[in-house]
Every structure is written in structure tokens, then in C-alpha cells.
Amino acid sequence: METPCIRCGKTRIVKRTWKETVNRGTPITHVETVCPDSACQKVVDAQFAEIREKRELQESKKTSVKL
Q1: pTM for the whole thing?
Q2: What is the rounded CA–CA span in Å between residue 10 and residue 22?
């Protein structure tokens, strides 16, 4: 499956693949893909980190209000 980079549009490449066994021994194969341009990938990683931090902050505010 070919997926484009969200920033530059180049076809992403497979960085690593691993298998994990979950409930009742069902195997799941994980595939991590990255942009072939390392500078572009660093920018994308920074964007995702910022989004993740905002989401975690919102979730922590929700849980503190419920208490």
C-alpha cells in the first residue's frame, strides 16, 4: 500500500514492521512508515507532537473538572 507524506506528498517508505499477539492469540502486524526526506519527517514529527500535547492537555482538564 502506498501512502503519500502529509507534508510533501512523496511516497512514504517502511521504517519497521513488527508483530504483536493480542486477545486469544490473534496476531496483529504493525507497519511504521516515514517520509524518505528526513528533514520533512522531522517537521511532521514536531507537528504530531504538538497535536498530541494539546490533546493530552484537554483530556487532563476534562478529568480534573469531573473530580
Answers
A1: 0.74
A2: 33
Cα atoms in the Cβ-side hemisphere of radius 13 Å centred on 17 = 5
Q: Classify 19 in phi/psi space as left (phi over 0), alpha (psi -120 to 50) or beta.
A: beta
CB atoms under 10 Å from CB of 35, counted, come to 23
Select from 6, 3, 12, 14 the least CA-distant residue to 46: 6
Domain ranges of the chain: 13-65
Per-residue model confidence as pLDDT tens digits over 1-27: 789 999 999 999 999 999 999 888 899
DSSP state of 11: B
